[in-house]
Amino acid sequence: MAGQSFTFLRWKYSNYFELVEEREKGIVVKCRLCVGEKLLSTAKNTTSNLKKHLHAKHSTTEMDEKEPNDTCTPPQAKQQKLDFSSPSPGKTISSTELNKLVAAFIVEEMQPLSTVEAPTFRNIISKISVTGKRTGGVLPDRKTFTNFLDNAYMEMETDLKKTFADLEYVSTTADLWTAQNKSFLGITVHWIDPASLHRQKAAIACRRFRGRHTYDAIAAEIEQIHSSFALCGKITATVTDNGANFVKAFRMFQADDDEAENNEDEVIFTDLHEVLRDDSETSERYILPPHHRCASHTLTLICTNDVVKFLTAEELCALCEHDVTVVLD
């Protein structure tokens, strides 16, 4: 063995490697801790690559230094046991990062805020190593965590506005629903990422809708939300269901009549009391983007309503035909 390889042989952890080959400028060794044939190369006068390998792949293994003049027999590696009674001694995170992770879990999994006060959940968090704390992670109470979510929302809103500022075209969807006697309006934005050409989406509103679901009130809310994100003029179309007030809102306040759907032959029923009440009070003009009706909702209406009406009409026609035949006979 050439003398230049003695740097590796004198290394205190060389017993965890087997010398395979000596080359002109380096050596090749095999890791005895790795499963299979894991060959590594390093220079003759340094063991830095081997140190990095042990740190990256076997950091949880307790290493024993070799005995003097021992170059062949590796000691038995001592595998650490997991201790669930205290935080892991491995990687630590900051309290802010922990709160962000919990916030992401609550939002994305649609969990109630009361989750942060559940004893079992807080016990799980306490097992996470947090920088500067020996007892593990500690979540704030529900009220404080709500404020944290509000701040996170503001940051997300700012980031979305920056993203939208660089876009030329987007589309939106709008929906209105009622749950537990409370109405809500939700709006989402969809766009193509100019760099990756991947489709992206984001929810920009889910707010209480107070009062009657009139077409002008719907138009006012949609325009206000679009304006708050500086989307006016960038929206190619807004998709909604076939609700009469949604359809009327876009028919009355759509900016470009040429791109609107041709609804001249459609029969739309209007609340006479609403017309007499509003009269000239709603003189304010809103501007809405082009409108498209949701194809899925249209197909659902055909399957659940129109088919039933058609079948009922067929039965009535057959019954009438039968009655006429009986009378003639």
TrEMBL record:
Residues 50-91 are annotated as: Disordered. InterPro entries: RNaseH-like_sf, Znf_BED. GO terms for molecular function: DNA binding; zinc ion binding. Coiled coil: none annotated. Residues 70-91 have a biased composition (Polar residues). PANTHER family: TRANSPOSASE, TRANSPOSASE-RELATED. This is BED-type domain-containing protein. The keyword Zinc-finger applies. Residues 15-59 form the BED-type domain. Signal peptide: none annotated. Residues 59-69 have a biased composition (Basic and acidic residues). Keywords: Metal-binding, Zinc, Zinc-finger.
